[in-house]
Amino acid sequence: MKRNLILGLVLSSLVVLAAGLSFVWTPFDHAALNIPDKLQRPNAEHWFGTDHFGRDLFSMIMVGARTSIAVAFVAVGIGMAAGVPLGLAAAAHKGSWLDELIMRGNDLVFAFPSLVIAILITAVFGAGAINAIIAIGIFNIPVFARITRGGALSLWEREFILAARVAGKGAARISAEHILPNIANLLIVQGTIQFSLGILAEAGLSYVGLGAQPPTPSWGRMLADAQTMVSFAPHLALIPGSAIIVTVLGLNLMGDGLRDWLDPRLRVTR
Questions:
Q1: What is the largest CA-CA distance in the chain?
Q2: One-character DSSP codes across 66-122
Q3: Most buried residue among 113, 126, 177, 199 by CB atoms closer than 10 A?
Q4: What is the model's pLDDT at position 264?
Q5: CA 91 from chain center: how many Å?
Q6: Would you kindly state where each structural domain of the chain is located, as residue ranges?
Q7: Residue 270 bridge partners (DSSP)
């Protein structure tokens, strides 16, 4: 519905604005230690309080937003760049060995969650944001391949596709010129959903120490650091947890609103 789209855009824009603003301004240096001010509750000077090292939580949340958005955005880009061509190829050669190879490969990747893939990559290359991006990106590839294949298959028997084939266009050209533009709405909506899942995946990987490494702030690692201090400093967990919830909620509402707006059948029924 329209209100979902508007609310999702507002919440998502606030997070993106905070991330963008962190490049030029934060209330305090997010990496500066100030032990005398440690574990302060939210107040006029430190809006979200401070952590056990005296670092300003508001500044860390702003920079953490930048980390989460960057990881999720690049990971979704990797998934789309590899998954969409694979899905188009599978649909264009439905029932062939190429279709079977692509789809069975997708099933194989689906058998390993992004956390398991991250552990495997980390065991070889070490922990870090780049490896988190690779792990989440690999997991996104079969998602976009399946969505693309499903949407393309519903179009391959349509009259305008048959006309293009009669005109002598090959499968690759038809896929690029006719199939892809007509399933772009599906990919946009799925991209929004995967972006929110990428935020969650990055937080989960950072929580177990496989994401961005210190001193770069990460919402997931902030939660991990706070787990032993929840009883006397609950804001350390509530604030990064709320940041994750607001970001994921905003992206999901935006995806739901985009689906309704881009799909003419849903516009008619509503």
A1: 77
A2: HHHHHHHHHHHHHHHHHHHHHHHHHHHTTTSHHHHHHHHHHHHHHTS-HHHHHHHHH
A3: 199
A4: 56
A5: 25
A6: 2-269
A7: none
